[in-house]
Every structure is written in structure tokens, then in C-alpha cells.
């Protein structure tokens, strides 16, 4: 099993850059690059945990201006900092990501569902808040956005459960659920899911569906048409992916969206985005 390097076209739900105004594409691109660079550090199986943590601290110091960096490789980090300052975006929407990546680097094990949710609030929620912030959306959008982002992260973890455990020694099923279904870490690297693992994944996906339901309130709060359509597409694709996970076996075969799934998700999302009745915000 080899280390995978994802680009924006390999993500389940990539940023739809063409749906955003030209003036926002650069900051979105730099932000995505920042997150991907940090993620690649945390996911690198050839680096020791402390080395990963050190590199992530260095990345944060460059972004916050605590470290003077003159090289070209991370020039985009300094550029992102300048863009954050220009748009008066809280730096935590970038640095919070690094908190989660440092947890990944040391192989943190989650005891409870609540701990997993808290991790996802650092690893995924800042991205949603960032997108809402650069579009000047109302703060009332943040809560459902967090629920949707957390759901997306959990879906991604379940898809990658075998890869994460086998190569990165990383486990995202909370200990309380592992114990409930009598699972051991080695059960996650088999060629076929046990009945216990199938039940555990079903348990997690049902809880995740609850988060998606909370996130489904988001479109009616978003004023920007392009962003609203993007969110509706993501909601549609997330529901499709959860159904595929519940029907399939994440250990036996990689579960991913088919071209047909993408077509359905995009069409449903566009229709929903254009017909959603907006709530009146004070």
C-alpha cells in the first residue's frame, strides 16, 4: 500500500473554483494549498512523529510572521498571510487546521464520539468558516456549516479506514464504539469487514446522517448564489456517499463516487441551490 498524494481533482468534494468570483480564486487556491501541504506532512509515513510536529509548527510560524522565511517553496504561505490581513480574516481559520494535523502526526486515539467531533472541528470546520467568511456570509451560517464539515470529515475517514490504519497507524473509530462492537485495530486491515465492523460503520454513518441533516439548513442561509450551489452539491454528494458506504465494504473495495453519482449530485445540487427559499436574517 503506497502513500497517496491527492490533488484537488482527487478529493471527494473539491472546491468548485469556477463558482467563485475571480477576486476570490487566488485566496481559495492558496488556502487549499496551505491545507494540503500541512496534510501531506501529517500523512507522510517516512517522517517521525516529532519531525512532523516540528514542520507543522514551522509552517504556523511562517504564516503568523513569527519566522522570517525567504525561500520560494513556501512563498504561497506568506501570500496567504497577506490575503488574510487584507480581508481581515481571523488567522485561526488557518492555524486551527494545524492543531488537527499535529494530532494526526502523533497518532492520537479517540476515546469517545465527542472527542472525534472536537478533532473534526479543527480539521474540517475551519474550511467551511473560511469559505463563508470570504463571501461575507452571516454568522448564523457557521453552526450548520460546522455540522456539514464534520460529517464530510467522518465520511472521508471511514472511506480511508484501512489505509489510515495500515500505513499511518491512525484510528478514527472512537474506543467506545470499538469496544461496543468487540473490535481490535487489526480488524481494520483485513480484506473483508467483520460483522462487528459493519455494525460499527453503520452506527457511525447514522450519527453522521444526523450531522448532515443539521448541515442541510445551510443553503437557506447563504446569500451568495455560487456558494449556495456549491454547498447544495456537497450535501447531495455526501448523502450519496453515505448510502454507498452503508451498502458496500470499505475493506474489500475502495468506495468512491462514480461519474453517474457526480452527475446526479451536481444536477440535484444546482436545482436545489437555485430554488432554495432564503431565510430573512436580521
What's this entry about, in short?
The chain is mainly α and 282 residues long.
Characterize the largest beta sheet: strand count, sense, and whether it forms a barrel.
none
The number of distinct helices, counting runs of at least 4 residues, comes to 12
Relative strand content: under 5%
Helix content: 55-70%
Polypeptide structure, described:
This protein is mostly helical and 282 residues long. It has twelve helices and no strands. The protein has helices at residues 22-43, 49-64, 75-87, 92-105, 113-123, 125-134, 142-159, 161-168, 175-180, 195-215, 225-247, 259-275. Helix 7 runs antiparallel to helix 10 and helix 11 (225-247) crosses helix 12. It is globular, with a radius of gyration of 19 Å. The model is unreliable at 1-15 (pLDDT under 50).
Helices and strands in order, then pairings?
Layout: H1 22-43, H2 49-64, H3 75-87, H4 92-105, H5 113-123, H6 125-134, H7 142-159, H8 161-168, H9 175-180, H10 195-215, H11 225-247, H12 259-275
Helix pairs in contact: 1-3, 1-4, 2-3, 2-4, 4-5, 4-6, 5-7, 6-7, 7-10, 7-11, 10-11, 11-12
How would you describe this structure in keywords?
about 280 residues; mainly alpha; 12 helices; globular
